[in-house]
Amino acid sequence: MKIKISYEANEEFDMLDIVGYFKERFPDVKCRKCDRYPPFHHVYLTVKNKLNPHGKGKK
Prior knowledge:
The structure is a single chain. The chain has about 60 residues and is α+β, with helices and mostly antiparallel strands. The radius of gyration is 14 Å and the shape is elongated. The mean pLDDT is about 90. It has one helix at about 10-25, and strands spanning about 1-10, 30-35, 40-45. Strands 1-3-2 form a 3-stranded antiparallel β-sheet, with helices on one face.
């Protein structure tokens, strides 16, 4: 599962709450931040599938 969150500087505390929720729910979540397109900031979350972590068997 991949999730992208776009936010502005004044919404950073809301973003931290959302990312905190996902880190509690999915402890192995990967989080990457990007500030490439001002004034927007982006956070990318990636969660592996626990039942099929390597993606084998997909069609």
